[in-house]
Amino acid sequence: MMILALTLLAQALTGQNDSDLSCLRFNAETIVDEWWTQHAELVERPDGNKGLRIHVPDEGQTWPWHSGAVSPEGLFEGGKAYRIIVSFEPKALPDSKSGFYLFVRSDALGYGVDRWIQWRGEPNSPDEVSFPISLPQADDFRIHLGVHFSGTVVIDSITIEEGSGWKSWTDNELVDSPPDSLPEIRGPEPFTVDTPHVVDAPVFCVSDFGAISREEGGLPSDAPERNFEAFQAAFDAAPKSGGAIVRVPPGTYDFPARGSVVIHDFEDLLFDGCGSLFVYGTAERPMAFDVQRLHRAELRDFRVDWDWDVHALAYYGYVTDAASDGSWFDIEFHDEPELDPEDIWWNGMANIDPDTGIYQAGPQIGAFEVESIGKTGPGAFHVVPESPQTIRAGETYLVRNYTYNRFVIDMRDNVHLTLRDITIHSFPGMGFYVNGDQQYWRLIDCRIAHPEGELRPITCTTDGYHVARSKGYSIIDGAEFGGCGDDGINIHDNNSLGVRIVDTHTVIAENIVWWRNEYEEGDLIEFRNGDLSPTGFQSVLTAVEYDRDREEALMRFEDPVPQDLPHDAILFNRRYDSSHFVIRNSRFFDNWTRGVLIHASHGLVENNVFENNRHEAMRIETGWESRWGEGYTVENLVIRNNTVINPNAYGPSEGAAVHMGVYLPSGPTSYPVFRNVLFEGNTVKGAPGPAFRIGSFADVVFRNNRIEGVSPWISCDSYGGVIRASHGEGLYAVGNTWSDTPSTVLLQVDPDTTIRVYVGDGPIEE
After folding, report:
1. What is the CA radius of gyration of the chain?
2. What is the per-residue pLDDT across 737-766, written as a single tens digit (0 to 9) for each?
3. What is the rounded (10 degree) CA torsion for 616, 619, 625, 630?
4. Is the pTM here over 0.85, yes or no?
5. Can you give 484-502 as a three-state secondary structure string?
C-alpha cells in the first residue's frame, strides 16, 4: 500500500487553503464604542494608540469567569470558518490559575457549541493569540473576551479573518518519500485477574442472620433495617482468610436510609446474590456497598434499584411556553399529575425524546435556582429561574433531581476483584466507583440499564463507572451502560496546578482539594510545566500538611527543589497510575455526556458500540481547570473495531464523535501529551462535526476507519466527518473511507502547529 507523505512545513506543501475573503479589525476604541464592556477602560499605549485594559482584582474571587468585552451579533455567518487574532499584553497574573479567555457562543444553540481558547502569556510582554474556529449554522454568535479568576490584560486589537487557514486534503495530491513503516502501537500487554479460592469454603446465608425478602410476604415495618443488619452480620461472621461464601436467597430485599454494607479485609471471598434485587429509597450517604482491601474476591449476580415511589430521580417535562429572554417558562409533567413544586430540584435539564430516551440536538441546562414556581394545573408549573435559562417551548426535557448523592459499589484498595453479572437499574449517584490503591479488577457482563420493558428518564444520575485514582490493570467486558446522568465510563488519576517555593526542600501546592488530591508521605511527585511538558524534577514526599480552607498543601521533599519551578507547575502523583485497561464487547448509549472518557495509558477499546450519547462517544484528554484536574499523559492506546452512531447532539469539541486534546489555563500545547495512538477499523455514523478531532499528539495512526454521513444540525460543510488535527507531529491516515459526507474533504490540519502528516489511499465514495 502506498503511503503519501506530506510534510506541512516544507515548501512543497499543497492542498486547499481557506482564503481570506474578508477581514474585520477592532481596535480598543471601536471595542468600547461597539461592544458591551465591563472591568474595562481605555489606556495609553507606548505607540500612542489606545489599549483596552481589562482588570479583575484578585481579592475574594470565587467565580472563575469574568467577561470584559462581548461583541454584538452579526460578526459571523453560520456554517463558515474563521480565524480570530487577539493582540494583547498581560499586565498581571496574580496566581497560577489566572489567565485570559475568549469564546464564541450562540445563545440559540447553547453552551455545547461554544468555541473556546485560554491563554496566559508573560507579564509586560506584548503577544498574540490566533484561534481558528468553524461555526455551525446560527446567526447569533458573539465573542466573549475575559479574565479567568483574576488578572489584568491590555487588548490592542481583535481581528476576524474569514477562513481558518487550515489545510484540507480531498485525495492523494502529493507523492513524497513515505515512511519506512507505520508506528507499531499494540496497546496493553495481556494480564489476568485472579478469582477467589472458595472450593469447599463455608457458606454464610443472609437469611440465617434475619434477612427477609418481599416474596416471603407479611413484611415487618423494620424489614429494611433487618436486611441491612443481616447482610452485615453475615460478612462479619465469615472468616477473613481461608475462603468464604456469602449467599443471598433469590428475592427482593429492601434496604434502609442509612448505612453501607461493609465488606472489608477479606482474602478469597465470594458474594453471590443469586439473582436477587436490592431496593433503596433514600439518597443519604454512605454508599450501598463499601468494598475495601479485598484480595481475590468476586461479587456476582444481583441487581440494584431505586424506589421511584419515594422520589423520582428525574422527570420528563414538556415545555408549553417560554420567554425569549429565558426569564420564565411553563412546563407540564404529564405522568406526574400530583407533583408538588418542592419535588422538583432542577439539577439540570436536557431535551430528549421521551418515547425513545434519545437526546435531541439543543442546549443543555445546568443546575439552577428557582426564584418562584407556581402550580398552574395537574403536574403543570410556571417557573421563574433566578438567572435566565435557554429553555425552548415545544420540547420535552429530562429534568434531573439528583447528582452525586450516593453510590452503589465503592471500591478501594482491592487487588484481584471481579464484579460479574451485576445490574444497576437506577441510583442517585454513581454506579461503580474506584479509588485508592486498587489494582487488577474487572467488570464482566455488568449492566446499567432500565428494567426490562421500562423506559425511565435516567439510570445512575452521574457516571456509570468512575475510576478516581488507582494502580491500574482493569477490564470491562460485556458491559451495557446506558441512561447515565454523566459519563458511561470515566478513567483517570488526579493532578493539581500551582506551586510556591518556600525553601530548598519545600513548596506550597496550590488549588488542592483534599479529597481529590490525596498526597501522602512516601509518594513520588512529578512536576510538569504549565503546558504539561516535563520540568525534569521529581522527588519523594517526606511530609505533607493540608490547609483545607485555603485549598493548599505544604509539601516537603527528599531532594532539593529547583528554585525556578514555574508558578503554574502541574503535579502528578506517581503513586497512582490507572493505565493498563481493556474496554471491550460493550455498549454505551443514551448517556448525558460521554460514552467513555479516558485519561490513562496502555489501553485497548475494541468491539464496542457507542450510540446516542449526548456528548462525544469517546473523549481522550488531560488537563486542569477550576472544577477538576484529571489525567497525566496518554500513550500506547488502541481504539479498534468500534461503532459510533449519532454522537454529540449537544455539540462540544466542534461536534466531534471522538475528541483527543488538553484543557489548560495556558491554552493549547504543542507538547505531545498523547503519544502512539491507533484508531483502526472503527465506523462513525452521523457525527455532527469531525469524525476524529485530535491535538497535542505525536504519532497517531488512523487506519481503515469508515465515516458514514453526518448530522446536519451542527456541521458546516468544511469539516463534517473529517479527521481534524492541530498541535501535533506524526499523523498517519491510511485506508480510511468516507461516504455521504457534505464535502470531499478527508483531512484538515493546522499548518502552523502540525508537521509530518502522511495521507494514504482511501477515497471518498460517490
Report:
1. 27
2. 998 887 777 889 999 999 888 887 543 333
3. 140
4. yes
5. CCCCCEEECCEEEECEEEE
